[in-house]
Amino acid sequence: MSKYYKIIPKKLGAEVVGIDLQTENRPEVIEEIKKDVTNHRLLFFTNQGVISGQRHVEISKWFGELESTFTKHHKSPHPDVFRVSNDESEGCTGIGRTGWHIDGTFQVAPYAYSLYHMASVPKTGATAFIPLTDLIERLDSETYSRWNRLWMLSDRRTSPIHPLIYKHPITKKPVLCFHLGMTEQFLWDYKSPNERMTEPSETRALLEEIYEQIAKKNSDLIYRHEWQPGEFIMSDNLAVGHEAVPETQLSREDVGLRVLHRTTIKGVHKLIK
């Protein structure tokens, strides 16, 4: 419990009441917010007005060094802010629709945090989140054992090898390093006598299996967040998987303009099983 603000638990994460992100800079409050992001995995700040690109970056730096590997859009409010939209003249389109994932799996250390602000809210266009530790804890023993033998390789040319299941660097709870739309192959039993790469058909089957566990067998874990004007989200990127729902790509004429701003914080921990 914080003496600076109120926490209201949600299905996943918590809403923070009593903080004005436009002006908040007290070191003691920032430290509590950072701890609560770890504890709750997602923090939702409502009624924050329009967060400028510069202020978005300032808030992001509470968590560490920004890492901006994305395509730059000419309407982005800051070079370190990723601007996505349902209108290509307003932002990058199709983002988040390649499958459930965490951000930055192609990096030596995936992003530690992602921070989001919806600059223009359409009639519909949610972001779906799933708690990864809860998902893993529901796996049957056979599935867990197989997943625990797997390592993933992103489809980027110089991709590092990451364990599919590993320990969160802060909480030490089991989480997943995965991207259902940007995985080239899996590796079985890395650095063991039985090490081997998956064949393309095997890779597809494993990606489908992960999808089935998320979207069908454990769909009750999914939290679908419908954005409101003036909302800002801080996410422990390593603790929650996410995906943009299909409605995010509906046309501006049908649902209005969708503009989402996102920053990502550089990971500083190697993934350890």
Automatic annotation (TrEMBL):
InterPro entries xrefs: TauD-like_sf, TauD/TfdA-like, TfdA_dioxygenase
Keyword tags: Dioxygenase, Iron, Metal-binding, Oxidoreductase
GO function terms (MF aspect): dioxygenase activity; metal ion binding
Domain of life: Eukaryota
Protein's UniProt keywords contain Hydrolase: no
Domain TauD/TfdA-like positions: 9-247
Family assignment from sequence similarity: Belongs to the TfdA dioxygenase family.
Protein name per its UniProtKB record: TauD/TfdA-like domain-containing protein
Species for this entry: Parthenolecanium corni
